[in-house]
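Write out the 3D structure for:
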Amino acid sequence: MPPREVPTARQARLGAELRKMRERAGKTALDAAGLLASDRARISHIEAGRSGVSEERIRRLATFYACDDDAYVDALCAMSREHRGQFWWDEYRGVLPPAFLDMAELEHHAAYIRAYELSVIPGVLQTEGYARAVFQNSILPLSDDDLDARVEHRMKRKQILERGTPTPYDAIIHEGALRMRYGGRKILREQLETLAEASDAESTSVRVIPFDVEKMVASAQPLTYAGGPVSKLDSVQVDAYVGGGILDADTQLKAFRNLWEVLESLALNAEESRNLFYCIAQEM
């Protein structure tokens, strides 16, 4: 089977973890190739996510690399059993940019999610009308088909909060995002009321950093932290106009955890935040 042209974020992460495991063990790609009776090119493709790798080979490599973290190895094996085409977002492949699919994939597999937004409501908490208004305000105009596909995809991402075992979801939003009138007063009012209702769910927490907080961290980037089945597989998704990405370096994960602690100290509690949603909605 020829190498994949564009691996998914999960496929790339699996390969990257196998590379890090090998490097921690002080082994070379040639060493790994010898174990698997392969060649360095094949190992390179596996570690770049361009080629798949079986569960049996992952376990052989883990033993060879003296990795005794069974939960970590089991999680990597679970990733290897996933195939393109088995998830709902695969139907948008070739329709939406890969970053949209990567975000849905990240959220779907997360053990928990923490999201931070300053200017918009987090995607999985948006109403259809609000999401459409946000996309309509894109710098580059979208065709009707592209706009519809983006809105439909965003609405399907809500599945993580609605399935039998919802993903624990914690969001911290700056008050400025609550007052940005995407789509006008009516749409914003509906969005705020929906946000208040969503925050009533046991698995969902939505808290607000109000305008009157004097100490504010100088971070204007929307961030999403997705907990993995083990902490080694945590990820941070960073959104930016010129292109975001998914980060997984230990220092990057630690920086976000530190940031989250600061944000939590600045945010209102859940009840105060819910009251603010309704208060601003009544002003609309």
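The mean pLDDT is 93.
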